[in-house]
Amino acid sequence: KNLISSDADGAIQRAGRFRVENGSSDEVHATSDYTPGTWRRTDVHLENPEYHTRWFFKYFLGKVHQNYVGTDAEKNPFYLSVVLSDQNNQRVPQYRAILWRKSGTLKISLPYSPTKTLSVKSILSAMNMDRFERGPREILNPEIQKVRVTAERRPGSVNFKFGVLYAKEGQLTDDEMFSNETGSESFDKFLSLLGDAITLQGWAGYRGGLDTKNDTTGIKSIYTVYQGHELMFHVSTMLPYSKENKQQVERKRHIGNDIVTIVFQEGDDASSSFKPSMIRSHFTHIFALVRLKIFSEESVPLFGPPLPSPPVFTDHQEFRDFLLVKLINGEKATLETPTFAQKRQRTLDMLIRSLYQDLMPDLHKNMLNRRSFSDVLPESPKSARKKEEARQAEFVRIGQALKLKTIVRGDAPTSLVTTGLCRKEPWESQSFCSTFPYEIVCADSWGQSLLAATDTAGVMLLDALPPVQVFDKTMLVKQMHVLEPQDLLITRADKGKDARLYVFRLRTLRRGLEEKQLVRSKCDSRENKLEKTKGCHLYSINTHHGSELRIVAAIRNKLLLITRKHSRFEALSAVASGADSPVEEFQYIREICLCDPPVVMALVDGPTGENDNMICVAYKHQFDLINESTGDAYRLHHVDANRVNFVAAIDVYEDGEAGLLLCYNYICYYKKVCPFNGSTPMIQSNTSDFSFSWNQMPNAIGRLQPRPCLCCQPGRSLLSPWKPSNRLTCVIICVL
After folding, report:
1. Residue 497: pLDDT band by 50, 70, 90 thresholds?
2. Which GO terms describe its molecular function (predicted)?
């Protein structure tokens, strides 16, 4: 696969009002230390990531902090937010401050001293603000947090929409390109590389301006989630086609209003034939010509990743990573051009002035504290301790509710949205069958359906009445995971010495259901058995999916580490070639021996994935961390109780750092296990550790992405109350 980019760090050519980088060795030597034929994956990273730039969401929202309002010497209103926080989870306190002005925002970090209290005046002085028309006063109304979140959020910062235009060989005008009703086989493979085909009607995820109710913008589209960002692709051949309209206005309405458009042009001479002027759009700033070039409008700042020389990718996953990162970085860079920057500044100025006008009537009331240059205190004054604690508790409660709503909506900077169930609110249930006659052993969502394993009727797909049988009763499934992005179903079937792990392709199962083939039996699944897993009584997979799927199978006190060899695109190619069983895509890595059989397991991804991945295991009266590479064990948590009922260990990630929610008896205990020091995790007590208790002992606890937990206890439905925490936003118990 070839790709040439117009706006990395390489030497720049001119193409009208557009730049183009062609990945030649001359470009590379002129501007970087690349050598022809080399490629470094470390160069492929998202620039200006939102969890660094959206400070208010990360460090302030849902936590105790202070907000101030005032007017500068030019009588323009400004706002200041200050919080005392932990410095990079190293138990070193520091102040973080955000100054909001019409010209933009300024963020600084200031050291904390227990002997010298920092004042608002000194913070503003550090931001070069020493003169005021009206001195700053504290805002106590907790609703101010909603305005802060709105002011910080900007277009293109979390979710993105990109155009994809298919062009046949020799087509030189946009009317010709937009008039292609269908694409080629190679174009379809390219779309499979970009993401998954989703049905628009009823779609509850990010829609990118497409109609999800009446099919007016097509039946299907291409969608994916990449590093916490939802991406929707406006594909020309999937948008409505009109024989009467030669200009295909409906297609141009979407793709012509995308900042970044991919042009997939067939033919060997696509490099010299395509020109940005062929596409009549005043809004599109970047064209990515898949086989040869990416053009950028001249005003777009340079952005990476730089293209290797020669611009050839032999690994499909590396090509996909490069392309998606390049597209996201390109749109972010475009938003810094004068056209978009001036629009953003006008919007911010209007928002600040509007809020100031709303606060003016309350300048002499309780909403604004008259202490104009009050100290920024980590604790409230003793004289008003109870009143202040009640105010702070309400402030935190409103902030956490707003944070949860933002995460569930998919607008959080690190949202990890899924395409399965629970897309509206985490606690909203969906009824699949009100009179299901069998006891469910385990289940997982598959698209908008539920795949459920029963005790006596095999595995059923619940999405309509009557339920459809996928496996007969000879397959006694005890655990399962549906991995739609990987096109995999993983199950643990049978018990005792006959237990094994099985892996199936979802497409193969779906095809069998559509063609109404015979229900699969245990005998039919012999080719789907994973090697060396006989006798497996428990397994776990990594939920924080990187480029490699990992499985750990427990056979008594022995752990088997298994990984998937094939990348996403190679797996799709294997399906196309007719390989129904994915077993050959998995490889056995190593074996680790424990002192006792584990009762609960969870895989923890290290920050680099190189010798720092861990396995959390629970046995006896303790939770331990096991290094996947060395087998070394580290004590994570000891349970001080006569009897222990282990429930779950759930890996939780915040900004790439790992933590574990350890669940046993009535207790859930959160413990951060990062940063890692080489292969040794730092698991000593941390200020971020906390625990809470259930008022009934749960049978199982699961996570609803990105952070809330679902706890299940048959016959009961209750909300377990505890003091709000800045780590877990919401936990619920649900009836199944």
Report:
1. confident
2. GTPase activator activity
pLDDT in tens, 658-673: 889 999 998 889 888 7
Indicate the pairing of strand 294-297 with strand 286-289: antiparallel
Using DSSP bridges, classify how beta strands 622-627 and 614-619 pair: parallel, antiparallel or unpaired: antiparallel
d(CA 306, CA 385): 56
Alpha carbons 654 and 340: distance in angstroms, whole number: 30
The answer for residues whose C-beta is within 8 angstroms of residue 333's C-beta and 6 or more apart is 7, 47, 300, 301, 302, 303
For residue 629, give Cα distances in angstroms to 576, 637, 679: 34, 21, 9
Q: Please say whether the beta carbons of 285 and 295 come within 8 A.
A: no
Q: How far is CA 31 from the centre of its chain?
A: 33
Beta strands across the sheet bearing 488-493 = 477-483, 488-493, 500-505
Of the candidates 266, 225, 257, the one whose C-alpha atom is nearest the C-alpha of residue 239 is: 257
Residue that the structure tokens 């509206």 belong to? 424
Q: What is the pLDDT of residue 550?
A: 92
What number of CA atoms fall less than 13 Å from residue 188's CA on the CB side? 7
The alpha carbons of the chain give a radius of gyration, in whole angstroms, of: 28
Q: What are phi and psi of 572, to 5 degrees?
A: -65, -35
Give exposure, 450-470, as e/b (b: 16+ Cβ within 10 Å): bbbbbeebbbbbbeeeebebb
Q: What letter would DSSP give residue 720? A: -
Q: Among 37-46, 92-101, 113-122, 371-380, name the most confident range.
A: 92-101
DSSP code per residue over 330-391: HHHHHTTSHHHHHHHHHHHHHHHHHHHHHHGGGTTSTTEES-TT-B--SS--GGGHHHHHHH
pTM of the model: 0.56
CA 281 to chain centre: 31
What does the alpha-carbon distance between residue 640 and residue 519 come to, in Å, rounded to a whole number? 49
Amino acid letter, residue 235: V
Q: What is the mean pLDDT of the chain?
A: 78
pLDDT band at 138 (very low <50, low <70, confident <90, very high): confident
Which of 269, 275, 334, 349 has its CA nearest to residue 299? 334
Residue 296's closest CA among 307, 288, 308? 288
Q: How far is CA 474 from CA 522, 582, 716, in A?
A: 6, 21, 32
What is the rounded CA–CA span in Å between residue 164 and residue 260?
A: 9
Domains of the chain: 13-43+156-334 (3.40.50.11210), 55-152+341-373+384-409 (3.30.1120.160), 419-536+578-585 (no CATH), 594-736 (no CATH)
Is pLDDT of 542 > 80? yes
